Amino acid sequence: MRALLGKKAFLVLLFGTLLLLPFGANKYYVFAANLVMLYIILALGLNLLIGFAGQLAFANAAMYGIGAYGTGLLMKHFALPYWLSAPAGVVIAMAAGTLLALPALRLSGIYLALTTLAFAQFTFWVMTHWTSVTFGAGGFVPPPIDFAPLPINQEQGIYYLSWVAALLLYIVAKNAMESPIGRAFVAIRDRDVAAQSLGVDLFRYKALAFAMSGFYAGVAGALYCGMLGFVGPESFDLLQMVMHKGAVVLGGMGSVLGAVIGGTLLTVILELVKEFKFSIEIAFGGLLMLFVLFQPTGLVVFVKRWLPGWEERLHHAEDDGAERAPVAADGESRPQTQAGD
Amino acid sequence: MRGTRHVLAAALASALAVGTYSGSVTAQGEQTQGISDTEIHIGAFGPFAGPVYLYGKLVMNGVEAVFDKANADGGVHGRKLVLVREDDNCKPEGSIAAVKKLAYDEKVFAIIGGACSNATLAAVPELEKAGIPMVINSAVADAITDPPKPNIFSTQLTSSIESRAQLNYALDQGAKKIALVRMTDAWAMARYNPLIEYAKEKGIEFVADVELQIDAPDATPQALKLKASGADAIVMVLYAKPGAVMIRDALKIGYNPIWVGQTAINDFAAFEKQVGIPDALKNFATISAVAFQPTDPEMKPWTDRLKSLFPNDELSTFNMNGIGSAQVLVEALKRAGKDLTRDKLLAALGSIKDFQTDVYAGSITCDAPRSHQCNQNPGWLALRDGKIVRIK
Q1: Where in chain B is the domain with CATH 3.40.50.2300?
Q2: ipTM of the complex
Q3: In CA terms, which of A64, A111, B36, B343 is 20 to 30 Å from B193?
Q4: Residues of A with CB below 8 A from B91's CB?
Q5: Closest Cβ–Cβ partner in B92, B101, B189 for A137
Q6: What's the angle, vertex CA B77, arms to CA B75 and CA B80, rounded to 5?
Q7: Domain spanning B160-288: which CATH class is it, in words?
Q8: B346 and B133 in contact (C-beta within 8 Å)?
Q9: Which residues in chain A have their CB less than 8 angstroms from residue B27's CB?
Q10: Could you say which residues from 115 to 154 on chain B have a Cβ atom under 8 Å away from some Cβ of chain A?
Q11: Interchain CB distance below 8 Å, A128 and B104
């Protein structure tokens, strides 16, 4: 019984369902499931940066866009195949993400948030105004993707590519956060000066956190380009950033499993809201507010409380969540304050 | 690591179990999908909320009013029309999801809608794959219908038609120096590019090309730049709100050239209120896809019907766009006959010629297969002696 309710069973059920869905569901549900996988990847990447490393960055939507634009534009301008353009787009997004580590060395909290927000707005401006390269506000249609010799079309190919990417990136995130990398991230998040005194190389690990986050967003962007067959700037605006943050908050900050739950939940909620013909902005904003007020540690902590087998290393929000969560939420995460601290 | 291996093993086992999969494709182009003996299900997609909901929700309300009237009159060949709405949030991923949902989940017969240019453009390949008849009623980008797609028709004035009309109007008014003020989003760029091309064709160079954001609270810098350029006519590629800010701030510095608007500013009375300065619009004229203002007596039956369906709605030009497009669709459904199929509807749409709706400024002619841009007649509105009138 314990095994059936555990996290392994959840993951097998989730990824098994996603794998088999195209055989029984219509094209709409397959498309929605593909979106689920993209948001899982995005939430995993952002959670590494803000949940584990404690860097309050607002540039994830921009990285997502850079991945999509990088992939699509290389296909469009240089007629490169998707198999070359997609990795190149991911590398460009990762490089841009790594560059953001430079201000992160000197800035934190709200100042880092503002700097990364400015970067996101700048990226959006470039997408909209550098018409000769990006095709401007009207966006562009990248060339079709050929999966030959596999007997599948673009829709099916991108779906299974997303499935493989989501699963692999989950495993990478889980293993990385259970390794010294994860411990270094958490040490930086909890008190960077203390981490440095313990020998944690701040530049190295902050750069790694931004690079990993950029990599994840870049992968999602490259897949997005293939999934939609259209790239336009409106997909990478501030609302997109809010959705990424929302996925992390809904699932649980500083939890790899939480990111999987958050990315899934976010997409399902958005589609359900459409089903009930309700305003997405109001429904999503209201839900986010409810979580911040009443379940700030995310759904994963709630699940952990009631179901056995959901423990994760380095995620101890169950024990001291009430104190940790609000701190983590503003990016200035610290352990419980001691008298005279 | 053991957990990871479990997940991988289970996933691989599942993959092996379905290893024979070779990419089945759902049967598409069901000719009579969405039709029963008593009903025809028609889909619609566009934004329900946000700044551009006017082009989604309100247009759909207008469509619903026409369907309601057709149903009250006994339906189309005895079948009631049912509108199935989907929110696309004005995003490409939203519109593709909406089209997939309408075509494969709700299984509608045809679709009417398409509010945002980029979102609709992104959905075009999916619409073509599904083979579902589509009537565009708000999105203006030419690329949606040019080159013509067999199953996509537009009853809205497209951006190139409006851009040409705007420039021609300025020239007809004797303008020697023409400037441009524009937004930078997809909607504006869909108009800007054909405008620049047409100006080149005419040998005209804009004396100023100024940007204004959709939510700009102040346009004084833009007004000063336009005034300094000496332009005697300004082509406006702006929504009503920034358009009102632009004219208001130009007047504040004593600058009132010929202002040339387009269909985003076709609710003249509302625009006059937004500008809020008496006589401010005496040099302003705008394109209107619709022939009437919402308060005109000719619109009374539609005002009443809309009110009965949506008590919070006041008839607007957005509703009227929905009404016009839905009247075209209903007419095509009638012409397609009782033994309705998608092919018959497409043939009927393609053959519509000189069809007069209750709202559009000109008649509707779908010259298939040469052109599926069925509305080629921009109307013009201006203020004369304090009254809003149609002008040539």
Answers
A1: 39-157+297-376, 160-288
A2: 0.81
A3: A64
A4: 234-235
A5: B189
A6: 30
A7: alpha beta
A8: yes
A9: none
A10: 117-119, 121-122, 125, 141
A11: no
Taking only the tens place, the pLDDT of each residue in A268-307 is 988 888 777 666 777 778 888 888 888 777 888 888 877 7
Closest chain B residue by Cα to residue A273: B87
Residues of B in contact with A154 (CB under 8 A): none
How would residue A316 be classed by pLDDT, with cut points 50, 70 and 90? low
- Position B177, amino acid: K
Q: Number of H helices and number of E strands within chain B?
A: 12, 12
Domains of chain A, with CATH numbers? 2-329 (1.10.3470)
Q: Least CB-CB distance to B104: which of A28, A137, A151?
A: A28
Interchain CB distance below 8 Å, B103 and A27? yes
Residues linked to residue B259 through DSSP beta bridges, in sequence order:
B234, B284
Distance from C-alpha of A134 to C-alpha of A126, rounded to nearest angstrom: 8
Structure tokens at A225: 């380009």
DSSP per-residue letters across A82-135:
HHHHHHHHHHHHHHHHHHTHHHHHH--HHHHHHHHHHHHHHHHHHHHH-HHHH-
| CATH code assigned to B39-157+297-376 | 3.40.50.2300
Option in B23, B92, B103 nearest A156 (CB): B23
pLDDT surpassing 60 at residue B24: no
Query: What is B289-327 written as a DSSP string?
Result: SBSS-TTSGGGHHHHHHHHHH-TTPPP-HHHHHHHHHHH
